Amino acid sequence: MSESALLVNHLAKTYVSPRGTVTALADVSFRVAAGEFVALVGPSGCGKSTLLRLLGGQLAPEQGAIEFPGWPRPPKRRLVFQEHSLFPWMTVLDNVAFGLEMEGVARQERRAQAMAQLTVMGLADFARHYPHELSGGMRQRAAIARAFVTQPDILLMDEPLRALDAQMRLVIQDELLSLWESTRPMVFYITHDIEEALLLADRVLVMSGQPGRIREEIPSPFGRPRDLTGRTHPEIEDLKWHIWTLLEQEVKRLLQVKSK
Q: In the 8-state DSSP scheme, what is residue 123?
């Protein structure tokens, strides 16, 4: 059997409204191997979230194809968004167990699995609380726990740490890598933070401005397992500057197009 992977071939997506047609994505192609952690960066409005929803099956492309070769069954995909998306009427425990409930797991078993995942995330003492009783960081950790507890094959993450303060981002980045190392799902991770992309991912895909295309693929200089403590990584400074230059070029190009 060939290696399990995600293949995106010449993907295109447009949106039609009374105000006209907007091409969000054009001729997007890339490959992600099972167990790989890939980050995506790009200018605002370049179609990153649209691409994530296409990968998650929430949208359909006008052109191109999304394929999953090598999987013995359709891969299980889970999404984590910028906002925690927890149900306010459910306890944290039941929120984390919700995906397992949708899969038909018996109540006692799913709650046991959810509690074990909360323990890993340091949230066991808050299992009976409701989302509004938790801090923003704790709510997002619960959302990540809900995604991981179902043991997905592919985890699609849309800037999951964007709303958090700098200190909490560092903490959850470490927790996220630890969780990923233990189960190794494929991760496709959208972020605006160039350093975060390089520190977490195996590869960084840089998107062009609208319409979004993959402009460049950049491997991370770090091996695995990865230690994020200390945060002194001079080896990525040149890569950060290179990616920033690519994004700056795209923003300037878009501004020139709009001014014409």
A: -
